[in-house]
Amino acid sequence: MEKIADIGVFGGSGFYKFLEDVKEISIDTPYGSPSDNLFIGKIGEHNVAFMPRHGRNHSIPPHLVNYRANVWAMKEIGCKRVISPCAAGSLQKEVRPGEFVICDQFVDWTDSRKTTFFEGPVVEHPSAADTYCPELREIAIKTAKELKITVHETGTVVVINGPRFSTKAESKFFTSQGWEVINMTAYPEAYLVMEMDMCPLNISLITDYDAGLVGDVPPVSHSEVIKVFNGNVENLKKLLFSMIEKIPTERNNCSCANTTSNSHA
User: Nearest 5 degrees, angle CA 259-CA 263-CA 265?
Assistant: First the structure.
């Protein structure tokens, strides 16, 4: 297929609907249908592909997202980098709702998800030791600081299966491990991006304190998550568009393009 875009973003319509000359394209994949069509727009020197990971009407729960189809579609149209903004909960008091975390590690607490493209006859074992692209992380952190957005430069996200939120006991355990962020979509999305030799970036927008974090925190609700997320979506848009303009055309300061060549079968 013709190379249509060089940067992909998994995010809703709020991120692209005000761009001019947005083109909608449909992609078929060997892994079934993606969550939605791709929406292609121009930001700076980059053609950017947007896809709502839950569908444009938010009709796909996190455990049923076809992550492989979504990531394969981004690769198919030529993307070299994929940015994954997401709503997330905080597991530590110092990480407050409304703040951003540029995660550098993940912990997989999901089950029954398709998590790799290498199911045979080709078998590879790409290292997940440092999944997220260091070049993209540096650009995101620097841009957030320039925009005066409170940003945490590192963080571990524990990814639960969903769609239910954690019990207080589960949340207390996650907090006790020292992990900062909890989310339902960060895995296997970023790892699949890495398997395709693209650069993954996580941007976690903290919407709430997770249940069990402290004694007087009320249980998290979906309505409260949406309320905080919508209140900060403008900051997220500013961060996304400002950092995309700063991303160099060529990848020079990371080894993401060589992930599979460095793995061992």
Answer: 145
In tens, the pLDDT along 72-112 reads: 999 999 999 999 999 999 999 999 999 999 999 999 999 99
pLDDT digits (tens, 9 = 90+) for 175-227: 999 999 999 999 999 999 999 999 999 999 999 898 777 655 666 666 766 77
Cα distance between residue 71 and residue 193, in whole Å:
6
- Supply the residues annotated as catalytic: 208, 210
Strands (E), the chain: 7-10, 23-25, 38-43, 46-51, 81-90, 100-101, 105-109, 151-152, 156-160, 181-183, 199-209
Buried/exposed 2-16: b ≥16 CB within 10 Å, e otherwise: eebbbbbbbbbeebb
Least Cα distance to 73 among 26, 115, 119 occurs for 26
Q: Which residues of 63-83 are buried (b: 16+ CB within 10 A; e: fewer)?
A: bebbbbbbbbbbbbbbbbbbb
pTM of the model: 0.93
193: nearest Cα among 48, 4, 10, 36: 10
